[in-house]
Design goal:
The chain has 14 helices and 26 strands. It has about 575 residues and is of the alpha/beta class. The strands form eight sheets. Strands 11, 12, 13, 14, 16, 18, 19 and 22 form an eight-stranded mixed β-sheet that branches. Strands 4-5-3-9 form a four-stranded antiparallel β-sheet. Helix 8 runs parallel beside helix 12 and helix 9 runs parallel beside helix 10. One of its GO terms (biological process) is proteolysis.
């Protein structure tokens, strides 16, 4: 605490002493829990910084997105082209020139790192960055992981640029050292031979599905067809981070055990960015990556699946990977771009600055406008965040609080399904409640017996939006078969079902579902299985209870394939 006070005081002195007028742009009270001050970096240390420029009409784009995503709208499903999106998101010429001229006056040349030119990258030194942003970059260590990062607790920008710069990164946003890998249990070698294969294609749910989830269980519980997709263009993307690698051999073994009705040679494509890769071998097997690939290839039968491996050649681990991934996908030709993207990584909202969170959320809205359904696992810490922790107030997760993506919680059991107690859910402290979920959330807030309202922001965006099975889900990793738990299981399952719906829509000559939430909270609500029991304890409370209608544990519920087809007009 003494060091924190010193840094903030030093910044105040610096701000008071500079001749050029500066305005503090972002600040935090101290480093997040788990980080400690680790000294002052040399002024000659090289750093790479990203500057987000204010977009010319992002609000207009988001209003357009809600319009084309709402089933009752006359323009429903009229997804936008990348050039159309860029017209909304590019900075004005005045904004662009003001920032670039300021950088040039300091001997710096900015490289554009986004389709719309709203993100710039500069390479500089700690000393020059301190002067540019009237700040004091320091080193912060994370002893548990042994990693060290250069960050600051506050930074300023020239007052003349206050309307031009959205955020500078990495500055006050600290990385997520763990990356939100799933809870794992029971991974051990087994000689089981397709415990559920005998039930393939039947609508009766095998009794074993009450305790062990396989693709056959998902097909039976949610009525998902085993027949192959026919369009060939209902592309499904699976993002991979933190050196999690999907294994072809493990997928083959998984299909042999749990989907013997399709060729075990069925595989996935690979794309890489930021130095990403996908090395093959038992020692390279990533439980998360294998889970995500096996429950997309294994459920979205015949849908083209691409594993997008995001490397660590960025400035903030997962966060910059998310931004880079958005720009990567938006820059792809629409014919090969995934129409559904599932991601099983995230972090606590309070580890991301509000400005940085808003910039990433805005980026998600651009993908939604292009017709991409973005799904994220909600987290595995109940009301205590992405993973269980001690807390006095509930901890929302990020990016689940962003209103322009679909957050997926977890369930367990079959008769009926109940909430998985780790399923993260709650209300954002950064993002206001969007109109599409207003009625559903208001109904929930009138429910008797909710936690003390002082523990959460009842006016914030509620999450998750939907849910799917997430307990003892069988995978193969490193040649071993076993079960995993987590909302990490639920997101690829739900994404696979949306991809199969998209395949039917494409075959019928209709547009894909795109940004899902306005549909889910209107026509789609009746096509979901309402989960009304269980809760998500944490922070020394019982958390939120699941109940009739939407709740911040399982959202609107789990998918019913046949009813979803009806809801989309098929």
């Amino acid at each position: 605490m003494l060091r924190t006070t010193f840094f903030v005081s030093l910044l105040a002195v610096l701000v008071a002493g500079v001749p050029q007028p500066f305005t503090i742009h972002e600040s935090i009270n101290g480093a997040p829990e788990g980080f400690v001050h680790a000294g002052t970096p040399s002024p000659t240390t090289e750093v790479s910084l990203r500057i987000s420029l204010v977009q010319n009409n992002i609000i207009g784009l988001q209003e357009k997105l809600i319009e084309i995503s709402t089933p009752s709208s006359a323009t429903y499903g009229q997804w936008m082209s990348t050039p159309e999106i860029v017209e909304y998101t590019k900075p004005t010429p005045k904004t662009d020139a003001a920032v670039k001229d300021w950088l040039a006056a300091n001997g710096l040349t900015a490289a554009s790192t986004s389709v719309a030119g709203d993100w710039l990258t500069i390479k500089t030194t700690v000393g020059q960055a301190n002067a540019l942003f009237n700040t004091d970059f320091q080193q912060f260590a994370h002893p548990e992981t042994g990693k060290t990062f250069i960050r600051t607790l506050a930074y300023s920008i020239p007052t003349s640029l206050s309307g031009a710069v959205e955020v500078v990164h990495p500055t006050v946003t600290f990385p997520n050292p763990f990356g939100g890998a799933p809870s794992v249990h029971g991974i051990s070698k087994t000689n089981s031979t397709s415990l559920e294969a005998r039930g393939l294609g039947k609508r009766a749910i095998p009794a074993s599905c009450a305790n062990t989830i396989t693709p056959t269980c998902i097909q039976a519980i949610y009525g998902v067809p085993a027949t192959e997709a026919t369009s060939g263009t209902a592309n499904l993307g699976v993002s991979g981070f933190i050196n999690q690698f999907a294994q072809v051999d493990d997928l083959e073994a998984f299909l042999e055990q749990f989907r013997p009705d399709i060729p075990s040679s069925t595989t996935f494509a690979v794309q890489t960015l930021d130095g990403g890769s996908d090395p093959q071998g038992p020692q390279d097997a990533g439980i998360e990556a294998n889970l995500d690939i096996q429950y997309t290839v294994g459920i979205a039968t015949g849908v083209p699946v691409t594993f997008i491996s995001v490397g660590e050649n960025n400035q903030d681990g997962n966060l910059d990977g998310f931004l880079d991934l958005v720009n990567f996908i938006l820059n792809e030709d629409a014919a090969v771009r995934p129409q559904v993207l599932t991601t099983s990584y995230g972090q606590n909202e309070n580890t991301v600055s509000p400005a940085q969170a808003n910039s990433l959320c805005n980026a998600f809205s651009t993908l939604g406008a292009a017709g991409v359904s973005i799904l994220f696992a909600s987290g595995d810490g109940g009301v205590s965040g992405s993973q269980a922790q001690q807390c006095s107030k509930f901890v929302p997760t990020f990016p689940s609080g962003c209103p322009f993506m679909t957050s997926v919680g977890a369930t367990q059991g079959i008769s009926p399904e109940t909430a998985a107690d780790f399923s993260s859910g709650g209300f954002s402290n950064y993002f206001a409640r969007p109109s599409y979920q207003s009625d559903a959330v208001e109904h929930y807030l009138d429910t008797p017996g909710l936690p003390n309202s002082r523990k959460f922001n009842s006016s914030g965006r509620g999450f998750p939006d939907v849910a799917a099975q997430g307990v003892n889900v069988q995978i193969v990793s490193g040649g071993e078969t076993g079960g995993v738990d987590g909302t990490s299981c639920a997101s690829p399952i739900f994404a696979s079902i949306i991809s199969l719906i998209n395949d039917r829509l494409i075959a019928a000559g209709k547009p894909v579902l795109g940004f899902l939430n306005p549909f889910l909270y209107s026509n789609g609500a009746s096509a979901l299985n309402d989960v009304t029991s269980g809760g998500n304890p944490g922070c020394n409370t019982q958390g939120f209870p699941a109940t009739v209608g939407w709740d911040p544990v399982t959202g609107l519920g789990t998918p019913n394939f046949a009813k979803l087809l009806t809801a989309v007009g098929l």
